[in-house]
Amino acid sequence: MRFNTKVKNCTLCSELVPHRTNVVLGEGPVPCNIVFLGEAPGATEDKVGLPFKGPAGSLLRADAYAAGLREGKDFHILNMLKCRPPDNRDPRLEELRNCLPFLMHQLSIIKPKVIVCMGRFAQGFVLQKHPREIRVLQNAGKIIKPKRTIKNAKPQAILTFHPAFVMRNKGNNIEEAFIGHLRKARKLACIAQTAK
To answer: I need a surface site. Which of 66, 72, 94, 167 has the fewest CB within 10 A?
Structure first.
């Protein structure tokens, strides 16, 4: 069975399946040096079937452009969950575990050099920690080696804010820092590509 079909036919999360309109897989080139990793689709993403298509996605794309990254060429966007949680609630641990094989498969095919971990759920993924243990403000801007082994890839990870947090904190230098983290991702991807 093809990967896309397998994900679309998934019924493991009994609370998510009845509410989803679309499964949201990802968007961007394959392979790709940079992956932006978020937590879960929102209402707009569920409707159109693509990640980060609401206001937070507009901010992400504008800030990526400000950091010198081009959509459709320089980055691929993924979420931890492939289905929208009802009322945009936080993903549950069981749901994250159910989607983990799908995410790992995607990363093994995309082969990123850098994973930009946006928010506590994405950071929890690379740090292999419970999302409640993650301190996003303390981690912001850190570059780490993921604690998870990703088949076909040995990426570095940059820990940063979720774009929705950036939107809620306009005027606090958060967006400037976020753009700086995206610039770091571009630089790391260039170094890794050159070292090939």
So the answer is: 72
